Amino acid sequence: MTKSKTFDCAIIGGGFTGLAAAAELTRTGHSVIILEKETELGGLAAGFDVGGYELERFYHHWFTSDTHVNALAKQVGVEDQIILRESNTGMYYSGQRFRLSTPGDLLRFGAIQVHDRIRTGFATLFVRRIKNWRALENLTAKEWLTRLFGKKVYAVIWEPLLIGKFGKYADEISAVWFWNKLALRGSSRGAGGSEQLAYFRGGFAKLAREVAAYVQGHGGTIATGVEVTRITPNEQGVVVETADGPVSARTALLTVPLPIAGRLLEHDTPPSYQEKLNKIKYLGNVCLILEMTRSLSGLYWTNVNDPSFPFVGIIEHTNFEPTESYGGRHIVYLSKYLPVDDPLYAMNADEAFEFALPHLQRMFPDFDENWVTQRHVWTAEYAQPIVVRHYSSLIPAFETPVPHTYLASMAQVYPEDRGTNYAIREGRCAAEKIRSQLEIAHTDAA
Question: In Å, how far from its chain's centre is CA 257?
């Protein structure tokens, strides 16, 4: 790490927000250093080894409407590695598995009456036409979805998903958060109604490395395994304190979760700012990943609408990205959002698998635990901000009270929900603002 140099920008966090910001700043000739606590770049999209192949720790894809991912891939010269594939989804409800990938599947969805299926189809189309999300900020998802789809549809389809995702916070979630989910999925459907999703050949971790190589090729510095402990202003800009020594920079961009940002800035910010950062709460996530000899189902994504099942989703990755990408292995993710004091969060891979086993056997009666050759578990402490009513009033500003220090985290993504596409958007937007500040400072100095 170059300690004697003063960088134009020190970026704390090597996820896609930080990588995108660094790519944009170095493209325009600015000196940048990325400081990442983990040994791997990519944040939640970081990879790990499965028998000599690389897989994301947490499942990833992007939608055909996610233009910011495409733009970044094009910028670094790897747009030809984007793969588009049709996906298929389903639902587990009342002991049955239903396919729900197309309008025709909805018409055959026997868990609700025919008139409710028709109403659901028209209501979904109506949601995609809503542009003024601010009109929904005063409503909870429960209030809005019940009004739009009816009580029965809400109870069967939407309420279990809200509870599965947010637990005790389910009734507090904003209608805006759910509106975005419905509108986004609709924007990624083809002419026949089936959903198309995108993936990067070799995985998102490979895309992160491609962006990192671009940053380094344009003069940027990347330091992994480096923990930042404090950010302090000085006459030249800021000093970023790390376990490996200080780094000087004219500006700093924090792309870390709000509680971590608060701790880095707590010595130089008033209590009111700390309170602002702490108003947004988070849920953690546990992903249990199974390497298997065969498939569980023919579906890529199964929403679990059963409160007795401990995971909200079963994502069979190799029903989207072929098994050939992983040496013939079938890859299954079991995902659960939860408070980090939940016992499941502390389980190792074997414990989590034993916990999940009876539930898997209930959902898939033919399932044999011998199909599983390896299991892995990954956790993320700040996986999902809890988006409540009037969330826009809670979001901290890009500028922090510390001079020359800026904040771009996934909790500031709104009205959209966090995701790689919007992480990239926020990073590029942050870079543009920082570049303007640097140019103003240069002009003043001249």
Answer: 12
